[in-house]
Amino acid sequence: MTSSLTPTPGILRSWWPLAKHYVEMVIAMFAGMFLFGMLRATAGLTVEFADRPGTSYVLMATDMSIGMAAWMRFRRHTWASTLEMCAAMYIPAVLLPLVWADLMSPMAFMVTAHVVMMVAMLVVLVRRRHEMHCS
Predict the structure, then answer these.
(1) Residue 32: Cβ-neighbour burial (10 angstroms; 0-12, 13-18, 19+)
(2) What is the pTM of this model?
(3) Strand extents, DSSP E, 35-114
(4) Cα dihedral: 31, 82, 73, 58 (round 10)
(5) Model confidence at 68, in pLDDT bands (50, 70, 90)?
(6) Cα separation, 19 vs 16, whole angstroms
(7) What's the distance, CA 36 to chain centroid?
(8) pLDDT tens-digit profile of 77-131?
């Protein structure tokens, strides 16, 4: 006898593509952050996080967005879903005034920003779940 809380194989199978897509997006984010961060550093286009947390965050979000967008377009996702997923990277920027007003430390912002970013990505993924089911 299975509990009503135990997922059935059908449920797991239906959510697997979404979980896979989420992991792919996280990997693409980190790849973009690493690759484009290194390219910017080589070109001397970086800023120290401690000096300019807002600028540093926006640059990092852009690096991650480029990586995600490249992967999503490679996987033939629509521009609308690609841009919506990339927009999730910038949602935490609304917290920057708290840093500028010294109501939140830059490090607390960065930790919170990553959590908010991951949740925002999940919201986009679930909202577009029928579109995101990819092989």
Answers:
(1) buried
(2) 0.82
(3) none
(4) -30
(5) very high
(6) 5
(7) 15
(8) 999 999 999 999 999 999 999 999 999 999 999 999 999 999 999 999 888 877 7
pLDDT of residue 135 exceeding 50: no
The answer to whether 71 and 25 have CB atoms below 8 angstroms apart is yes
Q: In the numeric block, which tokens belong to residue 3?
A: 């509990």
DSSP 47-110: --TTT-HHHHHHHHHHHHHHHHHHHHHHTT--HHHHHHHHHTTTGGGGGHHHHHTTSS-HHHHH
Tell me the C-alpha distance between 122 and 129, whole Å. Answer: 10
Give the phi and the psi of residue 3 in degrees, each rounded to 5.
-75, 155
- The answer to whether 132 and 81 are in contact (CB under 8 A) is yes
